[in-house]
Amino acid sequence: MFDLGISKMALIGAVALIVIGPEKLPRVARTVGTLLGKAQRYVNDVKSEVNRSMELDELRKMKENVESAARDVESTIRTNSADFEKNLNDQANGTASSGSDDSFYTADPYAESYDGGSASTVAPVYHHPRKNWRVKRGATPQWYKHQAGVRTHVQSGAARVARFRPKKPSSGL
């Protein structure tokens, strides 16, 4: 911006001291510092806004390039798939296309009995296994579970052994 060296700064400070005076110089220096800080922030904001707009323009151009490339690839795939489908239909009907010498689109030598649609392509219907252990499915009464011997509480093996261990006879005389 400006080419200010130490000698020029000292000269400006000496002139300011003489012109403004020693009493008002600190207040003026603070005011000039805050104004310079605001000016620098404003310049930096303008620079960043210009950079953002330039990057946005570049991104828009890049987006247009990618979209045009995607359209080109899509059109190429569509034409190739249409050609492939046409050749496949021609071979399925028993006629060969006279204008193409493509050996890539040859019929399968192992598919001798192809009739063009005899295979069924119906997918099986999905059934959910219905295994949600959080949802209570039955309302079997506790007395029936106890009578049938169904466990209703979880116990470790050691706790089960301790529960059914025969009690020692007491030696109380």
From TrEMBL:
Principal cellular location given in the protein's record: membrane
Alphabetically ordered keywords of this record: Cell inner membrane, Cell membrane, Membrane, Protein transport, Translocation, Transmembrane, Transmembrane helix, Transport
Domain of life (superkingdom): Bacteria
Compositional bias segments (type: Basic residues): 162-173
One Pfam family matching this protein: TatA_B_E
Region (Disordered): 73-103, 154-173
InterPro entries found in the cross-reference section: TatA/B/E, TatB
Lipid bilayer topology: Single-pass membrane protein
Subcellular location: Cell membrane; Membrane
Skewed-composition ranges (Polar residues): 89-103
Cross-referenced HAMAP family: TatB
Function description: Part of the twin-arginine translocation (Tat) system that transports large folded proteins containing a characteristic twin-arginine motif in their signal peptide across membranes. Together with TatC, TatB is part of a receptor directly interacting with Tat signal peptides. TatB may form an oligomeric binding site that transiently accommodates folded Tat precursor proteins before their translocation.
Record note on quaternary structure: The Tat system comprises two distinct complexes: a TatABC complex, containing multiple copies of TatA, TatB and TatC subunits, and a separate TatA complex, containing only TatA subunits. Substrates initially bind to the TatABC complex, which probably triggers association of the separate TatA complex to form the active translocon.
PANTHER family, sorted: SEC-INDEPENDENT PROTEIN TRANSLOCASE PROTEIN TATA, CHLOROPLASTIC (PTHR33162:SF1)
NCBIfam families reported for this sequence: tatB (TIGR01410)
Family: Belongs to the TatB family.
Name of protein: Sec-independent protein translocase protein TatB
Organism of this sequence: Comamonas squillarum
